């Protein structure tokens, strides 16, 4: 009923007041909820999703930290799952952005997860949020943003907790959670696509492999191909962000053009303290 909704709203309002609060360098209000900095804009949907979402066995969730290759993984998943329904001339990727085809939150039980070198991920997020910052806000230096990132304060941070949480879950439940790394995908697309198809329960047949289906999916979903599509040059993401903002450089090691040696040292130490010590390998 309407009353119930209002009282749920009030209750939530009161609850939210008890959460630690901060601001991301993009200017978003963040609340620390269940170990993560959640943007205030999505907090209500987030809690509602946790309370009401019921998964089906056939569901698939793409769970990535922002700027770790979500767009790419969505395109690959969609193309792999529906390859028998897609024709060369009539590919939904030509008319819809990957974020439209695989919605947030896309519902699912099996998950696969995108991880990316934190330094490249940070630089990608820095550029992305810089574009989105409201003009009236004071500008934030790369130094300040980096400091916040290292302290875990960014949308859905801390980065290391996110990565470790999913990595551990994928170790415990390899059939339900596939852990993928951006750089590894770039290095060997074909074997990762086969792994992905196997995980999704739709392995490529020998015939498909001979016909070059794997290579074709990799090609259609490549950075160059997606970036050049009219729909991705013009369209808007569900949040109103232009699709084009999701395609920047897609380079491995772009961080070296921005981070100082002191910053690199700080990040390497964090990786050592947070990931290496936990036995994290990929
Ligand atoms: P850069 O900013 O380093 O270029 P997300 O999709 O999670 O928002 O991540 C965006 C990052 O993935 C951006 O990185 C973007 O350029 C890159 N990207 C987008 N599409 C890609 C694709 N098809 N292949 C590889 N990288 C891609």
From TrEMBL:
Cross-referenced InterPro entries: P-loop_NTPase (IPR027417), Sulfotransferase_dom (IPR000863)
Transmembrane domains' residue ranges: none
Lineage: Eukaryota, Viridiplantae, Streptophyta, Embryophyta, Tracheophyta
Name assigned to this protein: Sulfotransferase
Record keyword Transferase present: yes
Family to which this protein belongs: Belongs to the sulfotransferase 1 family.
Enzyme class per UniProt: transferase
Top-rank taxon, per record: Eukaryota
Keywords per UniProt: Transferase
Pfam families tied to this protein: Sulfotransfer_1
SUPFAM superfamilies: P-loop containing nucleoside triphosphate hydrolases
E.C. number: 2.8.2.-
């Amino acid at each position: 009923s309407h009353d119930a909704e209002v009282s749920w709203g009030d209750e939530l309002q009161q609850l939210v007041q008890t959460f630690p609060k901060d601001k991301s360098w993009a200017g978003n209000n963040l609340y620390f909820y269940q170990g993560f900095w959640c943007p205030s804009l999505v907090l209500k949907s987030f809690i509602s999703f946790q309370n009401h979402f019921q998964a089906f066995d056939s569901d698939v969730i793409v769970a990535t930290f922002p700027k770790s290759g979500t767009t790419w993984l969505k395109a690959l998943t969609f193309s792999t799952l529906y390859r028998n329904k897609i024709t060369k001339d009539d590919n939904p990727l030509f008319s819809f952005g990957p974020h439209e085809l695989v919605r947030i939150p896309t519902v699912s039980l099996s998950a696969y997860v995108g991880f990316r070198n934190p330094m490249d991920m940070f630089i990608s997020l820095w550029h992305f949020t810089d574009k989105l910052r409201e003009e009236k806000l004071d500008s934030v230096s790369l130094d300040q943003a980096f400091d916040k990132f290292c302290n875990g304060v960014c949308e859905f941070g801390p980065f290391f907790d996110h990565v470790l949480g999913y990595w551990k879950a994928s170790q415990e439940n390899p059939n339900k959670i596939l852990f993928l790394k951006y750089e590894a995908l770039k290095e060997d697309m074909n074997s990762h696509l086969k792994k992905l198809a196997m995980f999704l329960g739709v392995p490529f047949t020998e015939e498909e492999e001979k016909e070059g289906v794997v290579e074709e999916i990799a090609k259609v979903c490549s950075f160059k191909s997606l970036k050049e599509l009219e729909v991705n040059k013009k369209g808007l993401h569900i949040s109103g962000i232009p699709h084009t903002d999701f395609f920047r450089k897609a380079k491995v090691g772009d961080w070296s053009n921005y981070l100082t040696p002191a910053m690199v040292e700080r990040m390497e130490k964090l990786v050592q303290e947070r990931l290496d010590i936990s036995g994290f390998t990929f």
